[in-house]
Amino acid sequence: MLQIQDTLVSFDVVEKEFICDLEACRGACCIEGDAGAPIDEEERRKLKEVLPVVWNDLTPAAHRVIEEQGVAYIDEEGDLVTSIVNGKDCVFTCYEPGGMCHCAIEKAYREGKTDFYKPISCHLYPIRLTAYDTFTAVNYSRWKICKAAEVLGRKEGVKVYQFLREPLIRRFGQEWYDELCLTVAEYERQKKGK
Question: What InterPro entries does this protein map onto (predicted)?
């Protein structure tokens, strides 16, 4: 692991390649899994705030879930997560003709309808954060639905941390990201020297 300020970054984040390939996966990360996306209380507030803006993009099933339990719930592990439909689909998923999935919140952001991009856990995916008392672990979560993203990343030579530059800066700041890049360069230099 690499220590960057008060984080520990796994080697997979800086060594593995990754570029989302939506044409291949069709947005499966929005509709697969056994729980919603991890969020915090501030993000729950933002989700409630943006709900009227995205409501018409959501499915009728998502409307029913949100009306019954709200935009989020506590999952089996005790984490606050976005509400889900059918035991797996995020309620904020919207669909294009042909079945491509998108985040309705991100769509509204790109259309200038909200200043909230989407929950940081979604923006950072496939990176997952785990907070401990004295540091935050920054890990690459490999999942079979992202195999095409690994293939595309290898083809283009783009590492996970490079692909996720924008959300990493959003979460940790420009100074942190610059330090990560310098540390990675030194790590690569030392690897070549061995």
Answer: Rv0495c
The DSSP annotation for 155-192 comes to HHT-BHHHHTHHHHHHHH-HHHHHHHHHHHHHHHHHHH
**In terms of domains, do 39 and 97 share one?**
yes
Residues in the chain: 194
3-state secondary structure of 82: strand
Last residue of a domain, one of 117, 140, 172: 117
Average pLDDT estimate for 65-70:
94
Q: Are residues 43 and 108 in the same domain?
A: yes
List Cα–Cα distances, 38 to 42, 43, 172, 174, 185, in angstroms. 12, 10, 17, 23, 31
pLDDT tens per residue, range 163-193: 999 999 999 999 999 999 999 989 888 888 7
pLDDT at site 32: 66
Q: Which range marks the domain in which residue 13 is found?
A: 1-18+126-194
Q: Are 118 and 109 in contact (CB under 8 A)?
A: yes
Amino acid at 108: A
Asked if residue 80 lies in contact with residue 37, where contact means CB atoms within 8 angstroms, the answer is no
Domain limit, last residue, from 117, 150, 182: 117
- The pair of three-digit structure tokens given for residue 151, joined into one six-digit string: 């293939």
